[in-house]
Amino acid sequence: MATRAKLSLAIFLFFLLALISNLALGKLKETEVEEDPELATCKHQCQQQRQYTESDKRTCLQQCDSMKQEREKQVEEETREKEEEHQEQHEEEEDENPYVFEEDKDFSTRVETEGGSIRVLKKFTEKSKLLQGIENFRLAILEARAHTFVSPRHFDSEVVLFNIRGRAVLGLVRESETEKITLEPGDMIHIPAGTPLYIVNRDENEKLLLAMLHIPVSTPGKFEEFFGPGGRDPESVLSAFSWNVLQAALQTPKGKLERLFNQQNEGSIFKISRERVRALAPTKKSSW
Fold first, then answer.
1. Which residues are paired to 257 by β-bridges?
2. 86: exposed, middle or buried (C-beta count within 10 Å: 0-12, 13-18, 19+)?
3. For the packed helices 54-95 and 37-48, what is the interaxial angle rounded to 10 degrees?
4. pLDDT tens figures, 5-26
5. Which of 138, 213, 226, 277 is the most exposed place for a label (fewest CB within 10 A)?
6. By C-alpha distance, which of 166, 152, 172 is closest to 202?
């Protein structure tokens, strides 16, 4: 019985010593892992300076500790600044609605006259990656004052036109004739690429506001508009040809061609008379 008690006590003391040893070893390893190599080098150099007195060595060691604290403080400040910057950026991304566009921030002006303007929205993916599905589509907003004429043009893109506000007359050149269509608020129409068209605001008081969704057919994400006969502002596509070529092709004297080109120099959106508006309007309600 006494032998068993002695044996149990020996085993207990063995495990107790092993436990104390492991704890001490773990603490030593932890100290070694946590010790800063630069700090250790700094302290080692302080101890190796033979000309240093004991007081000098203590001062040197204190400076090593001070430099370590300054470095740790700097790292903490940089880490905090990065976290704050990341948080602010995250909050801005959350607050910014990818489906809301601001006139001054997200639109660029392509046409600006006394009669109206045309503004083009930047590419959808510049606003948000959530809009990648319509990356190659472009949106333009046309605004025209009362009794104004938007000069003839055609686009190298398919166009879905939506009448937001006002009353419009749309003239589409189809083969050998011009089809005149009246548009009321809420009306929508598809215009094939390359179709010449003109637009009239037939209202005497209210502005016309049209949304034009362009679907490019040549260059993804880009569309161009081309102006028809007559005019220097906007410049007609015919101005690229010499007078000799134009006279021969159109069988028209140069003087008459010059008068035609000089008629339109007020920009692509300009005011017209009430009589001219009536003349451009269809004689009967459109049935498109």
1. none
2. exposed
3. 160
4. 444 444 444 444 455 555 555 5
5. 226
6. 166
